[in-house]
Write a structure and sequence with these properties.
heterodimer; A: 313 residues; alpha/beta; Rossmann fold; five-stranded parallel sheet; four-stranded parallel sheet; globular; B: alpha/beta; Urease, subunit C, domain 1; TIM Barrel; 2 domains; nine-stranded mixed sheet
């Protein structure tokens, strides 16, 4: 594996399978009475968050702590620029503290690439602007695999604001690597102009795609997109691209419904769909910790086995 | 003071070796076996002699951002690049929108003495796009401004643009437009296309440039004025300009060295050294720009030399400043992209980098053929060596060169400004 995890494209098929297999092993720890492994004892992981994201931060924090790493949370409200300290100076500070791994969340696409130039430790992208969110893609793939088995040939439909979605970008890349067939469904305004260069299919018609889907992943759509004329009204968006009970009824029996959260219930997903047995939304949260443990272990853990004996204090 | 120089065996515009006698600021004679009493002899064996280069688009940053560049440091960089005249863009602090500011910049250029500095006047007050600046006062000032531009900002209001085009006819001025439809480029970070889609960076679509160029060509035709299109970057823009020229309309255009050599694939690492406005485009655009420069659809190479301090580029992409320096590498980039590809010869380079830009700027003492009686503005250029670009040795105060680390051909050996060497043996005098 590469030293950093910045894009889902950094992972070969073997890398991705190794992460998923390792996550599967590590998931067993969640069922133990003591959920802690000594694997990363003495290593320091910095959670560097320039953007509020409590759910992603606590997921990484839990993952690092279960591996016995020391965790430093470094939250910078707003952009580094508004704070007056540059990303570079923040990076040099972390470097001086001896961070072995830096988990970065930033509103600017590419910020993790820049950080990787300035720190020696591994950089893990926890979401950068509208670029990528590779650990989300890993936890999504992990969730799909647990429900459906091998992903090769599986049909995954990703619905919503693809243009602004880092989740969609990482999922398209990773799922393609794993051999799944991805179809993006969105109004044309919410797809990149060059989406035809991506390794996936595109449709504007959700109803046509649903019956063939093994997985339907709904993306959060922000109401303010309406003001920039990406779609006329929230109601129209919901009618054309929302997943309601009628649409779910057209899915195959085994098909699952995913959402990276946070959801807009009643906009892109109906409440009864979000809470139905097909929904993996809560599982995704739990699986996020396992997937991130696997990433931290593989990037920082060196040669020690992932699972030793339980730590007793 | 200009001495007397005999340049021996230079290939004038790449032709057969000949001598040039420079005396009293003029080219006194060209031919074989020239000599003059007391003259300093310069061995130009293997060197190409070109007329002093003229840049239509230079950011010298003074007044206001002397940390990035000054008139002195910028003109030293220009001389090292073979330039004998530059047009200093108006987006300084304060903006060059009054006779007072343009005269100050012009005077600083005279004092520095490395090349002629012709200030560009702002089209609108404060380059805010609302009210015309005092264009006539700038034209009548000691700086004799003929090129007006709100560069960095597009004169997007069609009425203001029309009026500006009409108004400058009174003193044979030209409006140099930074063509960028503002609504289509809100928050834009790079060329909109395959790379922006992958990188998740807001796109700057080609249509935002092309739509303004089309409108401005039609306006210029309607009022019979001169339009100059700054830093053309797309294949579509080339087609529109070619069409406008075919109508006989008075439209000229420039292309930057970086748009002739680099495409948007270099953005993939998110290094803001490649962030520029207009953005680097696709390989197809680069090809179209080269051919347009070769066939004369694009009249001139203009550097858009845009110095920025280190901290303006050592940031995340979105926070970084737009712009690249280019004076000291322009001729090498043109050799690489145009000469070595067989698209242009040395007379063509003289035309696109000296004659035509001088004509567009209405500079009488610049851009003249290397013939007896012309002002002795001469560059001696060695096309043979290939070196890796290292900005640490640049005369510019700034280091934001997108060519750093690239191996490029050629080296400016000497530059003469009205018979006085500003560069000899590659060193500033």
């Amino acid at each position: 594996m590469k030293r950093h995890l910045i894009s889902a494209a950094d992972l070969t098929r073997d890398d991705a399978l190794l992460v998923l297999d390792t996550a599967e092993e590590l998931a067993q720890v969640a069922d133990r009475s003591i959920k802690k492994l000594p694997t990363l004892r003495g290593r320091t992981v910095v959670n560097l968050f320039f953007e509020d994201s409590t759910r992603t931060r606590i997921s990484f924090e839990a993952a690092a702590k279960r591996l016995s790493a020391d965790v430093i949370n470094f939250s910078v409200k707003g952009s580094s620029v508004s704070k007056g300290e540059s990303l570079k100076d923040t990076a040099l500070t972390l470097e001086a503290m001896g961070a072995d791994g830096v988990v970065i969340r930033h509103s600017a696409s590419g910020a993790p690439h820049r950080l990787a130039n300035w720190v020696r430790g591994s950089v893990i992208n926890a979401g950068d602007g509208t670029h990528e969110h590779p650990t989300q893609a890993l936890l999504d793939a992990f969730t799909m695999r647990r429900r459906l088995g091998d992903l090769a040939g599986r049909k995954v439909t990703i619905v919503g604001d693809v243009l602004h979605s880092r989740v969609a970008r990482s999922n398209v890349l990773l799922l393609h690597t794993l051999g799944a067939d991805v179809t993006l469904v969105a109004p044309p305004t919410l797809l990149p102009v060059a989406v035809d260069t991506w390794p996936c299919s595109v449709s504007y018609d959700l109803d046509a795609v649903l019956p063939k889907s093994d997985v339907v992943m709904m993306l959060r759509v922000q109401r303010e997109r309406m003001n920039a004329a990406y779609f006329p009204t929230v109601r129209e968006y919901s009618r054309r691209y929302g997943l309601d009970a009628d649409r779910v009824a057209r899915l195959a029996d085994h098909a699952i419904v995913m959402h990276p959260g946070p959801m807009n219930r009643g906009v892109e997903i109906a409440a009864e769909v979000a809470d139905s047995p097909r929904s993996t939304i809560v599982e995704q949260v739990a699986n996020g910790v396992s997937a991130r443990m696997a990433v931290l272990y593989l990037l920082l853990g060196g040669s020690e086995p992932a699972i030793g004996k339980e730590v007793s204090h | 003071m200009s001495g007397t120089y005999v340049i021996k065996g230079a290939r004038i515009l790449g032709g057969e070796p000949a001598d040039l006698l420079l005396r009293d600021g003029e080219i006194a004679e060209t031919g074989r076996g020239l000599a003059a009493a007391g003259a300093e002899v310069i061995d130009a064996d293997g060197l190409v002699a070109l007329p002093g280069l003229v840049d239509l688009h230079t950011h010298l940053r003074e007044p206001g951002r002397e940390d990035a560049e000054t008139v002195e440091s910028g003109t030293r960089a220009a001389a090292r690049g073979g330039y004998t005249a530059v047009h200093a863009m108006a987006n300084t602090h304060p903006v060059a929108d009054t006779a007072g500011v343009v005269e100050q910049v012009w005077r600083l250029g005279r004092e520095a003495g490395f090349c002629d500095v012709h200030p560009v006047g702002a089209v609108t007050q404060g380059i805010a796009g609302r009210q015309l600046a005092e264009l006539g006062a700038m034209a009548d000032s000691a700086a004799q401004v003929r090129v007006f531009s709100d560069d960095g900002h597009c004169v997007s209001d069609a009425v203001i643009m029309r009026r500006a085009l009409e108004y400058v006819k009174a003193f044979d001025g030209v409006i140099a437009q930074h063509a960028q439809e503002p609504r289509l480029t809100e928050g834009a970070q790079m060329n909109e296309g395959e790379v922006s889609a992958a990188l998740g960076l807001p796109g700057w679509p080609a249509v935002a440039e092309e739509a303004i160029i089309a409108r401005d060509c039609l306006l210029a035709a309607h009022v019979g004025s001169r339009l100059h299109v700054c830093h053309v970057s797309t294949a579509g823009s080339v087609e529109i300009i070619r069409w406008a020229k075919s109508k006989g309309w008075r439209v000229t255009a420039e292309v930057t060295p970086h748009h002739l050599l680099l495409d948007d694939a270099v953005v993939r690492g998110y290094d803001p050294i490649y962030k520029v406005n207009p953005p680097l485009r696709t390989v197809d655009d680069v090809t179209a720009l080269r051919h347009a420069l070769a066939d004369g659809t694009i009249d001139a190479v203009a550097t858009d030399h845009a110095p920025h301090p280190v901290e303006a580029k050592e940031t995340e992409w979105a926070a970084a400043a737009m712009g690249m320096i280019g004076l000291e590498t322009a001729l090498s980039v043109v050799q690489q992209s145009m000469i070595e590809t067989g698209l242009l010869d040395w007379p063509g380079v003289a035309d696109r980098m000296s004659y035509r830009p001088a004509r567009i700027g209405r500079l009488n003492g610049q851009g003249r053929p290397l013939e007896a009686g012309a002002p002795a503005n001469v560059v001696l250029y060695d096309p043979a060596p290939r070196t890796v670009v290292d900005p640490s040795g640049f005369a510019s105060k700034s280091r934001n060169s997108p060519f750093a680390g690239l191996e490029l051909p050629g080296r400016v050996v000497a530059t003469f400004l009205r018979g006085r060497p500003t560069v000899l043996e590659g060193k500033l005098q």
